[in-house]
TrEMBL record:
It comes from the Bacteria. It is an enzyme of class 3 (hydrolase). Residues 182-280 form the Peptidase M20 dimerisation domain. SUPFAM superfamilies: Bacterial exopeptidase dimerisation domain, Zn-dependent exopeptidases. One of its GO terms (molecular function) is acetylornithine deacetylase activity. Homodimer. Its cofactor is Zn(2+); Co(2+). This is Succinyl-diaminopimelate desuccinylase. Coiled coil: none annotated.
Length: 371
């Protein structure tokens, strides 16, 4: 056979993101799901995405690692970012995709290749948008933040993120989720003095001393804060407790690990000060912290976006990459067709109707006829 390759050379798969597929966000979702891209294995999918974007004369394209950036430069007054991660959590007997009635099943259907499909579909079909648009398809969101493509871009190519407003197409089931809560973890430590339990009066029991720490947690009344119409519910919770030396020793140390989720009207520093106040008199050590993000719904592109969606926003209670934009002073929100409750689940799926609705909404927002 004339086209056989020498042994050991694998013919590259043809790019499945054909023009026919790019014009249909539903087909495009399936095509993206069917390119396996578990975190740290995004090279192939990033290559396909880069290749098709480079064929579009209205976009300039660049790449950092397995993160692909494409943008229009039409001289519009405002610029918006549409961003999505290319990676998925590990496969779980859910690859490749299958379709059952109105549902596409498969790894990454909800989180978040249906969202990536919307951005890629717009990049391919909207050469003349009302705002300039920067599209970001990034790697390694699902694993430790040291690998996060958006974090690497913020460090190495911050100019790629310059914008007036950003939409992350993470799964929200078609609802606008704005801002996000911050999170921090502390270790609250009690100390005592070891002794044999047969002569316990000679020691001081550090585990008993932790009772006061737990009492303060149980008595704690968490705030509920409404910002730009979004309600954030804070929380202060013990998440781990450790202490004890042996079955016959009065323990000299106990550590209660506490996680605070805080509304974005507090900075990380203010949240830590608050936790230190709650545990006044105890040794409190910060182990981990990430800032929240204000909803930022007052920027003009954000207001236009909400009008296009036509529904009230809700607060995002988890921590997401919108906080990376907020840290750069760029208001950002989450909006995507997937159902967040199905993210990372073995029966992960997305509703075809939600993909079509999302595409229609984004077109309504970004098509120049509206301006
Ligand atoms: Zn995600």
């Amino acid at each position: 056979m004339g086209d056989s390759l020498p042994a050991g050379i694998v013919r590259p798969m043809a790019n499945p993101l054909t023009p026919d597929v790019l014009v249909d966000p539903v087909q495009l979702t399936r095509a993206l799901v069917d390119v396996e891209s578990v975190s740290r294995n995004e090279r192939q999918i990033a290559g396909y995405v880069e290749e098709v974007l480079r064929q579009m004369p209205h976009l300039s394209v660049d790449r950092l690692g397995n993160t692909v950036m494409a943008r229009t430069d039409l001289g519009r007054e405002q610029r918006v970012v549409l961003a999505g991660h290319l990676d998925t959590v590990p496969l779980n007997d859910n690859f490749p995709s299958t379709v059952v009635d109105d549902l596409i099943y498969g790894c990454g259907t909800s989180d978040m290749k249906s969202g990536v499909a919307l951005a890629l579909h717009l990049a391919a079909t909207l050469p003349d948008p009302g705002y300039d648009i920067t599209y970001l398809f990034y790697e390694a969101e699902e694993i430790d933040s040291q690998f996060n493509g958006l974090r690497l871009v913020a460090e190495d190519r911050p100019d790629w993120l310059r914008a007036d407003f950003a939409v992350l197409l993470e799964p929200t089931y078609g609802v606008v989720e704005a801002g996000c809560q911050g999170t921090l973890r502390v270790q609250v430590r009690t100390t005592g003095r070891r002794a044999h339990t047969a002569r316990a009066w000679r020691g001081v029991n550090a585990i008993h001393a932790a009772g006061e720490v737990l009492r303060r947690l149980a008595d704690y009344r968490a705030r509920t804060v409404t910002i730009d119409g979004c309600t954030f519910r804070e929380g202060l919770n013990a998440v781990r407790i450790s202490g004890g030396v042996a079955g016959n020793v009065v323990p000299d140390e106990c550590v209660v690990e506490v996680n605070m989720r805080f509304a974005p009207d507090r900075t990380e520093k203010q949240a830590l000060e608050h936790v230190q106040e709650v545990f006044e008199g105890f040794d409190v050590e910060l182990t981990d912290s990430a800032p929240g993000a204000l909803p930022g719904l007052t920027a003009e592109p954000a207001r236009e976006f909400l009008a296009a969606v036509g529904a009230e926003p809700a607060a995002k209670l988890g921590w997401t990459d919108v906080a990376r934009f907020a840290a750069l002073g760029i208001p950002a929100l989450n909006y995507g067709p997937g159902d967040p409750l199905l993210a990372h689940a073995p029966d992960e799926h997305v509703e075809i109707g939600k993909i079509r609705d999302g595409a229609a909404t984004l077109h309504r927002w970004l098509a120049p006829a509206e301006f």
